Amino acid sequence: MATPIVKLNSGYDMPLVGFGLWKVNKDTCANQVYEAIKAGYRCFDGACDYGNEVEAGQGVARAIKEGIVKREDLFLVSKLWNTFHDGDRVEPICRKQLADWGTDYFDLYLIHFPVALKYVDPSTVYPPGWNAGSPEPEFSNATIRETWNAMESLVDKSLARSIGISNFSIQLIMDLLRYARITPATLQIEHHPYLTQHTLIKYVQKQGIIVTAYSSFGPLTYLELNHKSAKETPLLFDNPTIKSISERASKTPAQVLLRWATQRGIAVIPKSNNPGRMAQNLDVTGWDLHDSEIEAISSLDSNLRFNDPLSVNTPAPPFEMRSF
Length: 324
Description:
alpha/beta, TIM Barrel, two-stranded antiparallel sheet, eight-stranded parallel β-sheet, 2 domains
């Protein structure tokens, strides 16, 4: 099943529906990527911090070797982790990640968080996470401008076709756009009916930047992490509004949540290791919700964020200046 594409401001096409690699286990990742490609997925969203880029690359390599796809058929995404924000650290870690994936370029490379941490040598701890074995994070003096300039050089050297940002606020984006030589192609954010971030999305889309949603199913994504707020929050799949729309449209609650995003031009990156759900998650563009249903889902907003480092006692508050 082919998925529609969106045109990035860099001139490249990105599938509107991709496959997210966060929390995909290393021992199953290669096969999940391979099976997702067979199911029709062409966009894969990875990151240094996920710790499974070697395995994801193995899944890609298998599919290419078997002739299912060519490299140019795929849209591979990765992210710069916080410990590599110093300008001279960006290219070396990008090259390492490319080698892990077994590819010469990323279709899209993002700054994962607007938080610069002290450099950690990949030969000692990788991926380093927030603390890299220390009691708490150690910060770097690298500015976003320094990091973005280094990101732009990745495009100049054909290591990344497009570059973008993740988990940035309006305030940081406004500042970045004042000096950016290359405008970010995408912004990736937590986005679900409990956290609609309407003003942020409206502003970013007006700048010609594509928004990608992660955690589209809200608290469900965080239950396995024993996240306190997620355990205390009703599942979106059980919400009466979502269930009613699901029944009317003859679609699953997951499909309704994904279509709520894609119908508004927001890309999504769900994951599943179930073949049936893989196919269902791709089928979120060829049908429409009613305008009143879009509004009803959006009205569930309660500014409830699950992916916040502060919630796990990490003193690095990228979301302190929230965008409602």
